[in-house]
Structures are given as structure tokens and as C-alpha cells.
Design brief:
single chain, binds 2-phosphoglycolic acid, 255 residues, eight-stranded parallel β-barrel, TIM Barrel
Length: 255
Amino acid sequence: MSASPPNRRPLIAGNWKMYKTGAEAAAYIEQLKLLLPSNLEADVALAPSFTALESALMAAGDSPILIAAQNVFWEDEGAYTGEVSVPMLNGLGVEWVIIGHSERRQYFGETDETVNRRVIAALAGGLNPIVCIGETLEQREANQTFQVLTAQLKEGLAEVDNRAAQSLTIAYEPIWAIGTGRTATTEIAQEAHRVIRDELERIFNKELANYIRILYGGSVKPENAAALLAQPDIDGALVGGASLKPDVFYGIINF
Ligand code: PGA
């Protein structure tokens, strides 16, 4: 399977975006459970909408399927119509959360600063954040990719201490590869993951940089998962479109 060191067991996470009701989430998870072998060699997570979290958790039960929220707000409570807080996720039993997805950045005004506030709050509340970063096509063509990634990490992870950093996962998702069918080549992805790991070493230390998992996202499918996951610094995948059907998603889990 993966070339990652043992402490970086692959994590395959499905981001359902704005798809699936609670009933649909439960039916999917029941099907996925039947497909998963008892000697699963990867960690598996699914991120349903807030409205489907509870039924997803119930369906996952004591199976190895981890359930993640797609976002979280930084205040515990208050007059913030439409927001969901860390204690609310804690109350449900959700332990994982995606933060800073490029769609949040593109359509909902997310910035590195708001990503940072969410990350700090999530870590303080014992959640495991999957922090998404990635460059646009324009930035890649202008040779700004590495600069963009290091700035997103530096600002997004500001004030995170080394102990809390153990709960972090990073997802590298080049925006030009999301939902476009255009995957980064293994070389492009590995190169970016190496840059990210080097920056994690500068921000934290070498041990943590080698410990934190870095997922690749952007048009991951059963056909390209193995080659991507064979790269030394790619420790898993964040999967959108190909996570919506259990058999297709299982094709990635079973890379
Ligand atoms: P995609 O989405 O797999 O459909 O490209 C990935 C993501 O947005 O996390």
C-alpha cells in the first residue's frame, strides 16, 4: 500500500459537500460498512452536511468510519445565525472537521485569518481539523504556488502549539483540480506535499512535520489513487465527487 511511515497510516476522507440527506447518508454508510474488510489498512472518514451528521454517526456506530463536519465556527455560542460551534459538534460526538475548504474560501469569504480562528477553536475543543490549502490556476501559472502554500500554512496555523499540532491533518487541494477531472500529476502533487512538509517543519519541528498527515485532494478516483498514494509525502486523499457512491469510494479506500 502506501510508502508512508507507519505513524502516517493513510487517511481516505470523503467530502460530501452539499449532497445527501440524513436518510441518504445512513443508507450509504450501511452499504460502505458491508464493503469494508475487518483488516482495513487505512483510516476512513466521511464529511456529511450538518443536517446529516447525527444519522451518519448513528449509522457508523462502532465501525471504523470516522465522521467529520464540513466547517465549524470559532465562538462557542452567541448571536451568530446559521453557525455551528465546537461544543455543538462535541455534543453530537463528532471528532473531525474540515476547515478552509477552497469552496468556503471562494464562495463564503473564508480567509487564512478566519481559517486560523476556526483551527484554534477546533483544537481547543478536542476536534481533529483537516485544514485545506491550495493554489488557483493563475497562481500556479505565475509560479506562486509554493509562496501561496507556505503563506496559507503560516497564517492558518498561527499560534497553534506543538502539542495541539498532533491533531492536525493538512489537505493539499489545488483549486484547478477540484471537480474538474484534472488531477495533479503525481510529480506535481508530491512536490507540493514536500514543500508543505518542509514548512510544517519550520512552523513546528521535524518530528511533527513527519507525523502530520498531508492528504491530496482534487479529482481523486479509484484509477489514480494508488499512484498518488505511493508518493512518499502523500498520506491519504480528500475525495469529493468520487466519494458520493460507496462502491466507488471503496475503490479508493482499497487503493
Ligand atoms: P473532487 O473534490 O474530488 O470532486 O475534485 C475534492 C474536494 O473538493 O475536496
